[in-house]
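Re: [help] complex structure
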Amino acid sequence: MSLKLMKGCEAIAEAAIQAGCRYFFGYPITPQNDIPEYMSARMPQVGGCFLQSESELAAINMVYGAGGAGARVMTSSSSPGISLKQEGISTCAAAEIPCVIVNMMRGGPGLGNIQASQGDYFQAVKGGGHGDYHAVVYAPSSIQETVDLMPKAFDVADEYRTPVIILADGLIGQMMEPVELKENPNPVLPEKPWAATGYDPNGKKPRAVLNSLYIETEDLDVLVDRLHARYEVIQKKEKMVELYNTEDAEFILCAYGTVARVCKAAVRLLGEQGVKVGLVRPITLWPFPSEAVHDAAAQKSVKAALTVEMSDGQLLEDIRLAVNGDKPVEFMGKAGSIIPTAEEVAERIMKMRRA
Amino acid sequence: MATIFKRTSVLTDVPFHYCPGCGHGIVHRMVAEVIEELGIRNKTAGVAPVGCAVFAYNYFDVDMYEAAHGRAPAVATGYKRVHPENIVFTYQGDGDLASIGTAEIVQAAHRGEKITTIFINNAIYGMTGGQMAPTTLVGQKTTTSPLGRSKEHCGEPIRMAEMLATINGAAYIERTALNSTANIIRTKAAIKKAFETQIAGKGFSMVEVLSPCPTNWGKSPAESMDWIAENMIPYYPLGVMKEA
Amino acid sequence: MLEKNIFAGFGGQGVLLMGQLLAAAGMMEGKKTSWIPSYGPEMRGGTANCSVMLSDMEIDSPIVTKPTALVVMNRPSLEKFESAVVPGGSIFVNSSLIDIKVQRTDVNVYYIPCNEIAAELGNDKVANMIMLGAYLGKAKCVEIETVLDALLEKLGEKKAKLIPLNREALLRGAACIE
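Output below.
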């Protein structure tokens, strides 16, 4: 197995294929165009299908069709396009369709800009579409981690019959890093007896009805309860978090994705100045690793926590809920795609230290 | 005793919820009969719309999806790409297909997607309570055009069959009506032709069916049939628009 | 070792490729590397730039705000990034196209007439490789032969005949550094 210098978008696409994804539906939008471009060349080589849809709306509904037909399927977009997909994501959650949706976040609101941002945290983590549902949300901070998470994303989607979102940012999509890809020419996929593959009334398999409409109150209640029970299992089993240098730290930084890497650099800078700072990096944003965040921040040694994000106080809310008032939680962040520097983060911690 | 007529096994036992005199029941039965006659039941999936046929997944005894408003052709596309050897149809009304779902239906035809669409044109939104559709005739009163549809205010009704027939990927497009026994028989033949077009892998196929909605038209079932003949057919001519 | 570089120039001058080759060569020599391009409308006819990091240790943040080396192929790039270079860092200036001098006195400056040397070699397109050679002559962070290996991988065997010209360009660039 060897290292290859790959663009994030291309690495994600290849990792999806290695994870058994054979169907991709998407619509061009910067900064994630390398994903559909790569898929358009690769899918025919592996007997899969790439289709450029007429819109993001159509793409997510094609995902519904293909996921409902039992295939491993993916779509990708960037912020404004992900907004268009929300109708379909809500539908897929309700119809219990496994699928993977990649969001290479760019600046917003509205058309915003095309640089990296984290402004879609609420949209991804708190629902996005209408109704009571969740999607599992992974927030990788390097290309290698993104690649490693892809098989997991598809497995989790299948196991819980749920949409899974890869919430990355434009920077992870556009940058290149050495990456090790595990080749998996014949991925073993789980059986999906519920999928629409053809119905024989004399056979054993029940008729597939993939549906998000439950017009009788009692029926909808059954669905929502079933989803709720599933979400509880996901909360128990699927949380992922990285704790970096947190033990006995004086301050705790909280960040995800690209910003978490900046924070790691800040931890090192501060360490050189003799200030012990740790980083809590949620890898799953839903389910949110509240206990780990709380335990790191509530340590006796900790004076305060600082949430750093490329958005206007979105991650902050979940960090504060997790810390639950046990320590002060401060906020440092900017929307508009300004990436904070390690020096700025270190400076802020020094200021908090003097306060 | 000899059986001379039997209901098709491709419909479930669930009673239709449709209003008296509605065309959906007739078309459902004919679609199910065609699926049975073509021997494709075991490999057919349907996609139900949003609109009066929203519960079609309860009636057709094949694999079924329920799609969000207008998205049925996209969902059918996803299914067909995974199971190209199978048969898939969408069943859509005029709000679903000719308004909110125009992009999906036009682009499915444009790609030559090998799917079959049954398009029920009754010139009105039924499920939501009789609002104006893109197919509502000029002068026709609806709950959102209480003075009658005004050409100046919202244009003239859209002819989907003619429009889709201009697209290269469309292999078979026909418009039929339910206003007489002869036209009902022709409708069934058209539905069969549309499915055969898909089986032959020729491209996109659609049958637009002019269908009565007595409840929202405020007419009796018999008056509704006459209204189709007198008002709809002159504006929406019947016939094969495209046959590749 | 921790090299934090910014390569900048007009779109079409091959600055993104310079950075990619350096990152790929670093990876081939077992170093940790990262490459970040500027992207978007500014790429179309305007200036392009990329940040490249090379390190013996894991790269925490791949974002370069204070480069240890700045490589500029055109004047707007020098004007944009000159002030960002760390004191004691290096600036490599394509003196064929940049008619101003570096104002900073706390950095090492190398003026390389890339386009003129390229013309001597008979191919304007290798100006970027001459500049990359100059950078390597100073930074010495990867071997020139490794860069050529990375280039060959990028070009494919069909274009292997271009390697000798590029080798010469890299060596001529490196020779500009005393």
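Chain B has a mean pLDDT of 97.
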